Amino acid sequence: MNNKPTLLILAAGLASRYGSLKQIDKIGPSGERIIDYSVYDAIRAGFGKIVYVIRKSFEDEFKSEILNVLPDSIETDYVFQELDSFNKNINYNPERVKPWGTGHALLTSESVIKNPFVIINADDFYGFESYKIAYNFLITKPNEANTFALIGFELSKTLSEYGSVSRGICATDENDYLKSVVERTEIKKENEKIFFKDEYENWQHLFGNEICSMNMFAFKPSIYTEAKPIFFDFLKKNKENLKSEFYLPALVDQLIKLNKAKVKVLKTTDQWFGLTYKEDKEIVRSKILKLTKDGKYPDNLWKSF
What we know:
alpha/beta; globular
């Protein structure tokens, strides 16, 4: 049995954001996508299996475009996130179309994940150091079932040049354990300064060195047991809401408040980037090209793997 940690990639939202899986931009020198760099970095860091959460509607496309380009030596699996995944006995608004968010996506993977694991977004680039930090945490604290970790990024390294973003700003105690994650919306950079819009629609200043969540968490399988009652409570309260979502940061925040989990914030110095806006594509491509020229990645990820 493979006892190495697993990487769980949340990819169910890709089709809705880009219209088609084929339209997820190829940004690497040999047509690699961001998702390929995530797999490459995770395997190098020591992870033993990759699991994807996708939608049934693009299963064939996903297999041909994403899975089939990977070397046979990489163990993979995938599960579906649909509106009724994991909650078939709950009645909800029949007009509801989309699934219930990233926390719901997590729960759909329970049947295929048996080892400690890291969860990420499919369209975010996190960097090799982030995976190594997460891997080291998981293999050094295997017996602390309800001690999890959040890989924290410096806010200034997670912004887009082309518009505002939402980020979960982390508050920690003196031992770097998470106290809360507060979602800040419409964070933007203007004249080298960073601002966000508060709940009263007022613009407030941020410094840029705040640690934020980019949906990269290191979990143990016990997360499933702890998350289920919180998710079902959420469904009961929001089953008629057409747009409500069960977000991972909100789940983690609730677990902390209920004393169901401790979450260590592990700070990474890596530069995050992703395709938040169409205009981000060329910046992302240039950053990947520079990392390749600097020898961080080969021209073709899988050619000599």
